[in-house]
Design brief:
Two copies of one chain form a homodimer. The first copy, chain A, has 215 residues and is mainly alpha-helical. Chain A has one domain: Tetracycline Repressor, domain 2. Chain A has helices spanning 8-25, 32-39, 43-50, 53-85, 90-111, 115-126, 128-154, 160-178, 180-187, 194-211. In chain A, α4 runs antiparallel to α5. Chain A is elongated and about 60 Å long. Chains A and B meet through α6, α7, α8, α9 and α10 of A and α6, α7, α8, α9 and α10 of B. The first copy, chain A, binds a DNA duplex (18 and 18 nucleotides) through α3.
Chain lengths: 215, 215
DNA sequence: GTCTATAGTCGGATAGAC
DNA sequence: GTCTATCCGACTATAGAC
């Protein structure tokens, strides 16, 4: 773990600016000049802190995944313990499911200006390292947990079914972050302001619950 | 409607090459040089046929959306007529829903090499014209139809609910095309070869059906 | 109509002063 | 450690020959 004596918050500022610009302009479109300018540092500072453009991008991935992982970890551990403990009622299983889904939806939809979700979406399409990092730190564990819960909710079901359903549920939630403009257009909404987000959350949850056999 | 006396299939070849490269390298990453080279034409030919890089990209969008629209039109019109005709049983409504969803899934997942889906995904994030074209020619009508069908299936439900659910269903299906690498990794599948695609299709449909109250 | 050659712009990276 | 000034490569677009 390196220390950045004089530049710890400079580093932060560069990272957040870079995420914003990578998200809005794409990796090739966001020039190091623009990033440096908007972050209020000189061009060689990027070289100094991150070794170059690819290094900066990797650092952005780390910065984001680390944050999301931290937010997702507590409910994930709680769920894991509960599942290990033994028999759970249907209501308890649904509650576990909900506790895992809720922070994901909130985190993707409202917490950060939306740049994170866009960065996410772009990285997933453009870069392979990003995919690895996301899957390793977030996606893999989440899907495994959801699969376990769904498997119990569905009772006996052929092996791939719970996993496919878990992925489909994550997809429904991710769509808020990833396909935001398309979704807003289709819904005729201007944004995901609080009440609308709450509506979306409620409807999605009702749909998921129903797809698993109802409450 | 313009004619391209000597270059109609040249135009086609350029378009398909361009889609492939835009999809894999992104708009800024796919240089006109590379596109021209891979298509077996000279650099100025792109200028001649499409007026420049932006024009070429617009033409790609048109080429794809026109194809998808053509494939989606027959079931959409059939559904529209059926809905106008009057009372439909639950089974009939579900069958309509399925007839709209099926070509979408097949088209996105298998028909074209996957480049189309990637092009789609990129364009949706990067370009606004693409979003307009897609919504106008495909998404808007599809979501409206699904909303109508779902509204009837759900009986009385608050206004936004059927529409939100329609969008969520489209999202689940789109995920096959858009987040393909992520989905494959999460499922531990190498590809969407026939049996696996069929499994996916079956599970998704069962889940959708259940979320709307079962068969 | 289709090509070769080139102009003009902008990108990432670095050398060297402070 | 952080800056200014600069290099070199790659891109789009166009001018003009055939």
């Amino acid at each position: 773990m390196r220390r950045y004596p004089c530049g710890d918050d400079t580093r932060r500022r560069i990272l957040e600016t870079a995420i914003e610009l990578f998200a809005h302009l794409g990796y090739p479109g966001a020039s190091t000049r623009t990033i440096a300018h908007r972050a209020g540092v000189s061009l060689p500072a990027l070289q100094y802190y991150f070794g170059g453009k690819p290094g900066l991008h990797r650092a952005c991935i780390e910065y984001i995944t680390e944050d999301v992982r931290a937010r997702l970890d507590p409910p994930a551990e709680r769920a894991q313990r509960a599942l290990a403990d033994g028999r759970l009622t249907r209501a308890q299983l649904l509650e576990l499911l909900r506790s895992l889904i809720k922070p994901l939806l909130e985190g993707l939809a409202s917490e950060r200006p939306q740049s994170w979700a866009l960065f996410f979406a772009r990285a997933q399409i453009e870069q392979n390292d990003a995919l690895d990092a996301i899957h390793e730190r977030i996606g893999g564990r989440l899907v495994t947990l959801l699969t376990e819960i769904i498997g119990r909710l569905l009772g006996e079901a052929a092996p791939p079914e719970p996993r496919v359903r878990a992925v489909a549920i994550v997809a429904q939630i991710m769509l808020v972050g990833r396909a935001r403009p398309m979704v807003l257009r289709s819904l005729g909404w201007p944004d995901f302001a609080e009440e609308r987000l709450a509506t979306l959350q409620r409807v999605l949850w009702r749909s998921i619950e129903a797809s698993l056999g109802g409450p």
